[in-house]
Amino acid sequence: MRPAIFTARGVTKIYEMGEVTVQALRGVDFDLFEGEFLVLLGPSGSGKSTLLNILGGLDVPTSGEVLYRDHNLTQADDAALTLYRRDHVGFVFQFYNLIPSLTARENVALVTEIVEAPMQPEAALELVGLGHRLDHFPAQLSGGEQQRVAIARAIAKRPEVLLCDEPTGALDITTGSLVLEAIARVNRDLGTATAVITHNAAIAGMADRVVRLADGRVAGVHTNSQKISVSELQW
Predict the structure, then answer these.
(1) Domains along the sequence of the chain with CATH
(2) pTM score
(3) Is 18 left (phi over 0), alpha (psi -120 to 50) or beta?
């Protein structure tokens, strides 16, 4: 068994919205292991994004414990969580959040300037298949290319874990396949532990493990004895 990067036990999250209380997570136990490709699968409102945000230090649980290696994230203050996000976690969201006035290379370079041992922007973009688009602006790139720039930006700081929230949600099947292949390549070539949120069950076949969430709870965990490639997905 590979060492765990994340260990979460009994995690709950409650949001108070005026007079309405929303319980997003209800006692979730979760692990992510070194080098693993994991899919978090479930419908909208199942708690997937909330869990990912807590793992990434963007949010804190109402109760329970979350460990990153031997560091207790639930006891960390804002400054410690900022350093944790900077040094250890790469994020990829559904929307690309690129700066329109910067080229692909420059968008990636923004991240490489704040960490100690980054990849060269050109190398990160080459890894996601965009070595020929270094000096193009976001408006000159397709949606799939923009998302791959966002992946390059996330991995250029050499994070130990890559957290992806619906990375293909705004894309068609063809471009979504290219994005998934880029994420799989990062996991395979760099050994980056990767968690991908999706509501698309077809993507689950790519994963080492699939964790299903429903109504804020873990509804099931499945290990794939044999992963499939992006080209074999049945969309």
Answers:
(1) 35-53+85-232 (3.40.50.300)
(2) 0.92
(3) left
